Every structure is written in C-alpha cells, then in structure tokens.
Amino acid sequence: MQTRIGILGMGGVGGYFGGLLAKAYANSDSIEIMFIARGETQKIIAKNGLKITTDEEETIVFPTVVSSDPAVIGKLDFLICATKTYDIEESLLSIKKCITKNTVLLPLYNGVDAQERISALFPDNEVVQGCVYIVSMIVSPGVIRKVGPFEKLFFGSATAPIAALNKLQSIFENAKMESYLVENIEETVWEKFIFISALASATSYLNQNIGEILESQSSRSVYVALLNEITMIAAVKGLNLPHDIIMQTILKLEKTPHDATSSMHRDLMAGRKMELASLTEFVVNEGAKYEIETPTYQMVLDKLSSVSTS
C-alpha cells in the first residue's frame, strides 16, 4: 500500500518542507509526494522542478505529481496544508475529492484557528495541530529561498491515532526534517503564534525588519507591548505557557537573521493581500472576548486595515 502525501500551498513553508519530502522519496515505491499547485507555479515545477536555495546549497526536486486537478492528484492519506490563512476554506474545498474520511490533515499556518476552521469543513477527519519555525519565502514561482538555520516543525494531536502520528513522524525523520511529535501541542502552537503574531504586527506597523526593531528603543517598546497583550490573552485562556515566555520570545527573535522580516510585512511591501485577520485582528477579537485590553494590537490593526483597504 502506497502512502500518498499532498502538499497544499507551495510557499515558503509548503515549498521548503514539501521539497525535503520530494527529495527523500523521489525513488520510493511506498511513498508518493503530490504538490498541489496551479498556474505559473505548477507549470514551472512540472517543467523544471522546485528549486530550493539555502545559505549553503541549491537543490532541485521533482514531486511524484504536481497538479491542481483532484482527478490527477487522487485520494490522499495525509494532507499538509500551508497556504495563506485567508485561503484555507477555498483551497481545501477545491480538492475535497482528494480527501477521504481517512485522510489526516496537518495544518502549518501562521494563525491558531486553522484546526477549528478545517474541522468545520471536514468534521469526520482527524485534523492534527502543527506549527513551524523557519525563515523562507518565494523568490519567484517554483523557487524557494530559506534563510538562516531555523527549520523546526512541531505537530501533535489528542485525538488522532498514535499509529498515524508515529507514521508521519517516521516519514519526516527519514526525509531529514527536524520534526517533533509533541504531547502538549496547543501550548506549542500558541508559543509560535505569540512569536509570529507580535513579529508580523510590529514589522508591518513600523515598516522595519527584525534588526531595526531590536536596535530602536521605541520600536522595541511597541514589540514588547504586543507581547504583553497577547501573552495576557493566552494566560486567561488557561494555556500552560512558560512563565518567562516573553523573554524566551525576545531571545528567539534575537537569534533570527536580523535582515529578515515577517511574511506579512513582505506582503505589505509588495502590495499583496495580508494575513491581518489571523495575525492581528484575531488577537483584538480574543481580547474583546476575554475582556483583556489590547490597545497596541488595536493601534496596529487600525493602521494596517486602512492600508490594506486603500
């Protein structure tokens, strides 16, 4: 029996980790890797392969299949979802014929509401929680650039069969992916969300990269205020996060390449649609729900809402 794994979204996350899987299982009789892509990206990968560049090397990989047609993709055992958060519903519904009742879905989005949103579409399926730490981006269709050493993937589930989770972890490990099957996955996902939400909001609001924020006292103050607000919400929600989560998050940021920025900031600078709803507005709404004041997040949301609609 072949294990068929679909990668939905060929951006920085899906392209990089999907590329590692395609490289590892290029000649496998037991595992097939399907890139779900359309338009120019699909054409280029089908013809030239997916190119991944890192600080050390350049690799070109070919998946088993690259297509957006459910009839070509076929039924999937695992589906790794890595589109932008605003595309969750549309992208999944476009390939719903590939998703059987046994398909296990692993979302690797920036937000924390993906599991709930996907389960609303596919209530009978196991939707595993997951998150990644990586600085990677699309250079051009079919070309992914990864910066720095970070490439950790975390996943887990309280309900999925342990055999399915162990199988996925084994597939990841054999592909030389730095992946961790963790028990307290909700806390892990929220730790990442605290990191990425504050970073995306700060870089986009201030129009600065990581190094510029760390070097400016006023910029750093905005970033820390965002961290204070989002960690307060996590605490009120009852999440068991480290007591020094703010300091840990700042240290994580200091280890990130200083010339890097968030994907939301890159989208803003390029005039593209942003993940503002999942990364900034979600925190404001959660604050209202739990009666926690979020003035800094509100300030960011007000400014970026006017930019994204103008």
From TrEMBL:
Segments forming domain Ketopantoate reductase C-terminal: 184-305
Keywords: NADP, Oxidoreductase, Pantothenate biosynthesis
EC number: 1.1.1.169
Keyword Zinc: no
InterPro entries found in the cross-reference section: 6-PGluconate_DH-like_C_sf (IPR008927), 6PGD_dom2 (IPR013328), ApbA (IPR003710), KPA_reductase (IPR013752), KPR-Related (IPR051402), KPR_N (IPR013332), NAD(P)-bd_dom_sf (IPR036291)
Biological or metabolic pathway of the protein: Cofactor biosynthesis; (R)-pantothenate biosynthesis; (R)-pantoate from 3-methyl-2-oxobutanoate: step 2/2
GO molecular function: 2-dehydropantoate 2-reductase activity
One of the GO biological process terms: pantothenate biosynthetic process
Coiled-coil parts of chain: none
Any Gene Ontology CC annotation: cytoplasm
Domain Ketopantoate reductase N-terminal as annotated: residue spans: 5-156
Known catalytic reactions: (R)-pantoate + NADP(+) = 2-dehydropantoate + NADPH + H(+)
Pfam short name (any one): ApbA
Family statement drawn from the similarity comment of this UniProt entry: Belongs to the ketopantoate reductase family.
Function statement: Catalyzes the NADPH-dependent reduction of ketopantoate into pantoic acid.
Name the UniProt record assigns to this protein: 2-dehydropantoate 2-reductase
